[in-house]
Amino acid sequence: MDADQCLEEPLIGQEVHVESNTEQSPESAEEERSQEPDDSLLNPWKNHNVRLSFLLCIVSGIADSIWGSVVLSGFLFALGKAMGKTKEDNTLVGLAEMVQGLTMLIFALPIGLLADKTGKARVVRWGGALLLLTVGITLWALLVINREASESQRAADQSYYIMLVALGLWGICGGILNGPSQALFSDSIPKGRRSELLTYLYSSYLISAAVGPLVGIIMLSQSNEEDWSLEEIFPVFFVGVLLEIPAGVLCFFFSEKYTVPEPDDEPRPVDESIDTLSVDNPEQTETANSAPSLLNGYGLTKAAVPYVLFFSSLVVSLGSGASVKYFPLFFKEIGLRSEVVQGIFLTVPVSISFFSFVSQKISQSMGRVETSVMFNVCGVLMLYFMTWLSRDIQEGDTSRRILIVGVYLLRTGIMNCPYPLLESILMDAVPSNQRARWKSLESIASFGWTGSALLGGILSDSHSYQYTFAITATMQLVGGLMLIPIQHLVEREQVEPISDEDVADETRTDLEEPLLTS
């Protein structure tokens, strides 16, 4: 199924009620309509929240990729020079990243708890309002620093401190968009379809995020200003922030009305792994009976699944953070030109997206945990291989450089592709009224990523990039293998039937309205 299929039908004016016989009375027609199952609850591609999530993901992916990474770092770096703190440029950039990560860390769990208690859609709408306010503050910081900014230290100081406030608010907005918003997305998908839809959502963000570097390259190539000066960066930054406005507006149209009722709203306790395996694959029951100690030896129940997923993700993120900032510098060290490096990072989202679909297909027969561990091990081995290949590389050894780039692209796609599978396991393992808090906890791993980036820089300076990459690979392997104990607790995906009564209860009062309402 093509990813664009989720957007084939218009969001506004979608007809969602069943036409009644003209000879029926209004009362009987209303009763019949209220009892008719709604196709948007059974088919997630027609669900209002699902479609809206895809739009939000694409819009925010494009906007974030334009200003939120390379351009932001370049702006802060140039701002440090304008502030007269040339020797502290990297410190100023690091402080800004820390502020954004720290606010996400502090507010993530409270936001998730609030969303679970008061409603995810309501918190997402609040997040939309906050996002629009944050856009205004960010534009204020940019406008303070005008084309004479490089000559005005006072304006540069004001712009930097306003930007710190804005980045702190962006951290909170990120916690909302990555927490309650995606939890509501999972609530709107029937169990058994989540890994599929999460794969499409993940790929949509990745592909849209590739637009940012392209826009930046085009705009910067048309500029006659000094490379990486405030004057050159300003228009790119400004355009990227303006494109965040549609994302904030979209947040106002999410609704709890389109969530899918679930047969089980609480995770089932698992005292016997044999029962789980018989649901997963009845043919495995005989094997489980013959070796119960192998599966039950860990002493875990389904209640442990989200905790294992969290700690596994944290270890992998800490390992990744030590290296991810330094891959561009590594490619520079082995003699690749800057435009080649840009091309590599434009290709990375395509690689991850491709392998995400491959892993999702494989998981349908192998299982989600088994597939995730397999791809993790393959990715780790390829990083070790890339590290070995880059030893003592000679200046004219073009073939080895090409091989290193190819291994990197394969490794990055393979290593990152299990994310939708693990996300679907988490969403299946926790009840709907706890999903937002668990999704929000992922920001803790993101903050750990920021901390390990500093450690990775120290290790790269004192030893080498290859040394740091080897440590990264080892930590990623440990984090991936941590998933093995929950293998027998995670069922293979199968669509659970939704009873007509459940659907009728959900659709009785609200499905006559258009999908987008004011």
Automatic annotation (TrEMBL):
<keyword id="KW-0812">Transmembrane</keyword>
<feature type="transmembrane region" description="Helical">
    <location>
        <begin position="158"/>
        <end position="177"/>
    </location>
</feature>
<feature type="region of interest" description="Disordered">
    <location>
        <begin position="1"/>
        <end position="42"/>
    </location>
</feature>
<dbReference type="InterPro" id="IPR036259">
    <property type="entry name" value="MFS_trans_sf"/>
</dbReference>
<dbReference type="Pfam" id="PF07690">
    <property type="entry name" value="MFS_1"/>
</dbReference>
<dbReference type="GO" id="GO:0022857">
    <property type="term" value="F:transmembrane transporter activity"/>
</dbReference>
<feature type="transmembrane region" description="Helical">
    <location>
        <begin position="371"/>
        <end position="390"/>
    </location>
</feature>
<feature type="transmembrane region" description="Helical">
    <location>
        <begin position="340"/>
        <end position="359"/>
    </location>
</feature>
<keyword id="KW-0472">Membrane</keyword>
<keyword id="KW-1133">Transmembrane helix</keyword>
<feature type="transmembrane region" description="Helical">
    <location>
        <begin position="197"/>
        <end position="221"/>
    </location>
</feature>
<dbReference type="GO" id="GO:0016020">
    <property type="term" value="C:membrane"/>
</dbReference>
<feature type="region of interest" description="Disordered">
    <location>
        <begin position="497"/>
        <end position="518"/>
    </location>
</feature>
<protein>
    <recommendedName>
        <fullName>Major facilitator superfamily (MFS) profile domain-containing protein</fullName>
    </recommendedName>
</protein>
<feature type="domain" description="Major facilitator superfamily (MFS) profile">
    <location>
        <begin position="53"/>
        <end position="491"/>
    </location>
</feature>
<feature type="transmembrane region" description="Helical">
    <location>
        <begin position="304"/>
        <end position="328"/>
    </location>
</feature>
<feature type="transmembrane region" description="Helical">
    <location>
        <begin position="52"/>
        <end position="79"/>
    </location>
</feature>
<feature type="transmembrane region" description="Helical">
    <location>
        <begin position="91"/>
        <end position="114"/>
    </location>
</feature>
<dbReference type="InterPro" id="IPR011701">
    <property type="entry name" value="MFS"/>
</dbReference>
<feature type="transmembrane region" description="Helical">
    <location>
        <begin position="233"/>
        <end position="255"/>
    </location>
</feature>
<feature type="transmembrane region" description="Helical">
    <location>
        <begin position="126"/>
        <end position="146"/>
    </location>
</feature>
<dbReference type="InterPro" id="IPR020846">
    <property type="entry name" value="MFS_dom"/>
</dbReference>
